[in-house]
Structures
1.
Amino acid sequence: MLEIKDLHKSFGSHEVLKGLDLSVQQGDVVAVLGPSGSGKTTLLRCLNFLETAQSGTMNFDGDLFNLKYITKKEIASVRKKTAFVFQNYNLFRNKTALQNVTEGLIIARKLSKKEALEKGMYALDKVGLSAKYDAYPHQLSGGQQQRVAIARALASDPEIIYFDEPTSALDPTLIGEVLSVMRKLAEEGMTMLVVTHEMNFARNVSNKVIFMMDGEIIETKTAKDFFNNPEQACIKTFLRTYL
Ligand code: ADP
């Protein structure tokens, strides 16, 4: 479904991504792990064109794009098939949960209000927020706000959802509800690429692990292999810290 080749990204003279290759098949749940500063967020931002790469190619559903010279039209065509869940939810403060989910469907996807409402309610039901359609973000816990953000992602019928540390801003007591929604999506076959420090999620829900270090992917393995047979010393150290 998604194949990235030789992705380079620098900020000034600082090379943050040093030629990454990765591929995601339909139904994959890929956990992107690695120490802080290794380039995980920058990778996600390049995949969703929030940053422009210095070089690299993206093959999405058989369409090939040069990441340096990609046009706005091409970006729009890929974004139609993807959704992004941010660390800090990025909800509109002055809109209800349902309005947060339907806004993009009405404005960007040009759905009728009725269709958008139906999709919005369905998505909120799916993340367990049927009772909160009319709640504003400040009336919701962090976990509920992140579930609204996941509902917003789902409502656009994406082929893949990118998650950038979706639980790292949450109080520990609220992490479980977000992870269990993500687990349910994974079980239903949603393709997901998840930057996370939640090793239990990576171990038990993802099928593939990518480990990043200093701007490079130094390991790509099945989750089982990654956790059961770590070979590289720096990965063993990392696992000792986080497991
Ligand atoms: P991670 O998500 O693994 O913690 P990041 O992708 O956030 O890593 O950051 C990788 C490196 O890129 C860090 O050294 C960070 O300081 C640098 N970086 C990230 N964004 C920017 C930016 N907008 N400008 C300059 N440097 C940046």
2.
Amino acid sequence: MPGVTTLYILIAVLAAAAGGLGFMALRMCRQATALGLRLKEMSRARRLAPIRPEEVVGRAAPCGRGVGLVLEAVNDIVRHADAAVSDAAVKAKELEIHLKVATAERQHAEAIIYSISDAVLVTDTFDELVLANDSAAKTFDFDLEQAQSRRVDQILRDPKIVSMMREMRQSEGRGGRRVVEHRVRTPGGVRTFKVTLSPVSEGGDGGAAGPGGESGPHGTGGVVAVLHDVTHEKEISEMKNDFVSNVSHELRTPLASIKAYVELLIDGEADDEKTKREFYEVIQNEANRLGRLIDNILNISRIESGLVKINKKPQSLTAVVRDAMEVIAPQAAQKGVRLSENLTQVGYRAMADRDMLYQAVLNVLGNAVKYTPAGGEVTVETAVDEARRTVTVRITDTGVGIPPQDLPYVFEKFYRSEANNRMAPGTGLGLSLVKHIVETVHQGRTFVESEVGRGSTFGFELDLCE
Ligand code: ADP
């Protein structure tokens, strides 16, 4: 039965083929599972590594061609991916370092800017505020936190500063650094500032341009404005100018009359003893005036320039007033002016420089006697206001008084009321010194009330100390 034999053979061959195919499929399935497991293992460990063939097909069985090709491709991808991951990790590390350095530099710059007393404003290429310090916020009266990244023209109510910063940015620093003097209306009043505007280079370093203002190859990214308050310096220099011109004028007057009278004497214009004596007296008076003038000028300028050392200690104003009264008493008696007092206890004290305060009381008291005709009276009072914690010195005379239009100026340097000029010689510096001693040195307050023909009251008030 050849047909049956053939069938058996065919069945046997098919069975063998099926067995072979089954075996191959089984092996491929195992290899695929091994490959999958190995990839999973790498993914779990987050580390890529090439897969060796024996890890997938087993040490005993060499890998088939197809599996070999797949393995090769997988390993190539793994190697590329591994290299890319390593590169990225190095770059990430570098970026992290750069970021740390940049953050530290920014914090450093911010710390410097916040610690300086000048007002600093930094804008970017869109005229938006990127940095400002406390001093700038106070000067221009804006909220630091809310101002960040807002346009400067929305923050600053000073169109001049805004336009100067904008012009500097638009000019890309071609004109270099600019320094201008500018007056700003601050919450504390109008102040004068020296404004330095510098272009900021747009380069990677983000720093300000060099000393010449050159912005480098990158162009201007923004502007730094530094405002230095020069109000006090300006006031001092104006005061010095006024002072010098006033002093030279005041010194020239007595000197001119001394010269004139000496020439008259030399030319023999005074032929009798009486006239000579008159001339000598004029020369003596003018020389005395010159001496007083020089003393007062030196006193004022030494105090104003800070050359005199201020030595404040708790002082009884009553005691200081008593000392000054003792010195003035003979002068008052000689002139026929009565001195009376109404003083508080010595126990109340103010922090004061005794010598300076004594000088101030002496000047006011001296004026009271000087501008009061014989038969008049000068009363010296000290009073304490417990509630306000102040002590007041008040010196009232029954003298000639001061015309109302002159009153606001009597504390000014060299000011002498025309109406009283003939009453007594003077320099117009005594009350200016009083004001300086009381208000600048002791942070006190001076005051004056006067009525022509009835008399004047001059005085000052200081805070009591504990
Ligand atoms: P002076 O050396 O001229 O007295 P002061 O500065 O002491 O300078 O005073 C300025 C001016 O104020 C005086 O010239 C005078 O006209 C006026 N004055 C000051 N004290 C009195 C006073 N007690 N009574 C009237 N006038 C006074």
3.
Amino acid sequence: MPFTGNRSFKDAPRMIVGADGCHYTSADGRRIFDGLSGLWCCGMGHNRREIAIAVADQIASLDYSPAFQFGHPKAFELANRIKGMTPGDLDYVFFSNSGSEATETALKMARAYWFKRGKPGKSKFVGRGKGYHGVNFGGTSVGGIEPNRTPYGELMDIAHLAHTLLPENAFTRGLPEHGAELADELEGLVEACGADAIAAVIVEPLSGSAGVILPPKGYLERLRAICTKHDILLIFDEVITGFGRTGNCFGADTFGVVPDILCLAKTLTNGTVPMGATVARAEIYETFMAEAGPDYAIEFPHGYTYSGHPVACAAALAALEIFETEQLTRRAAALAPHLEDCVHALKGLPYITDIRNFGLTAAIQLEPYPGEPARRPIEVALECWEKGLYVRYAGDALALAPHFIAETHDIDFACNVLNDVIGTLK
Ligand code: PXG
């Protein structure tokens, strides 16, 4: 089972047998509020009929078409739709099947880009502490959550910037004040190994998996400026922040910083069909096209059997239609202040050492048991499940990411359960 304590699960299985809107139904017939939109991926609500119909129609008309050397119209329609939503000249889309593949594609794209630009030595990647970029070897290497790395021995040789979770920012509402200067570490790395050795920096605009770690005010702008100054590509992994979570379409919009490559997945299909996408600036695409040899040659020798799968494209087109017609970024932005008020009202309960929030996401940091990191949040999350709330734990934090279509009373319910459970901790 993925990232699951197999033994404890099998001792006491938590089976989900149905879903509707913002709720699950457990095998014992209980209605559970979905406090994390699945795994950050179903913000438009579960079981959307429009997506179900689009998927069924697609399987009945073109269930699969070969991804290599052939195309189908919905892949181009979807790419153009994404192009119309992304900021700047992030105009060229490469499809895959997950967030892990979207980031892996971005890393390979960055290296191949410099190769084509005649700078094969520009091959190093810079990640960030506590970053999460999926579970393939490249993503694991640039990732910075130690327990996800240590079992696998030698990974790629990556430099990691310091994470931005600073004690002086504890209990900040929204973006923290302190820590923009942490971006300057990149200047130090450039001095140490030379800009000619660094291909790209990859960060999540805000880290979800590690427990909603936010960029200090000005941090991303500084990172962008240093990358531009030294001709280093900036990759934003927006697998979580893409499509609405920050109250705009992308974190890039919210933070006003345009990367060179953008990684998407999750909400792209509202979680219904696996799909990832890597979006590159026009200049990157044009470099691949210009330096490709004869016209039958393959410009980017990369791709998956299921890249741009017709069923995934149909699901994504239907999902993005819902996303835009229901103006879900607005809805997420309108609900965010209520989430902020409700989570910060939990301050003062036992063991809470920090509360963070931004857009439609929040985290509650708990003091660990001595020598047993992560145990307390698991205990709290399991107790919440018994009381009708699904909440995720990440390290020492509990994470919330309600559906964009959630109502204020749903947020009240989630925070009341957290209040009861954390409030009675011994
Ligand atoms: N990048 C980011 C920023 C992610 O959050 C991935 C890549 C990988 O996506 P796939 O589709 O390969 O899983 C992710 C995934 C959690 C949680 O509890 C977060 C993710 C997945 C599962 C659980 O926070 N993020």
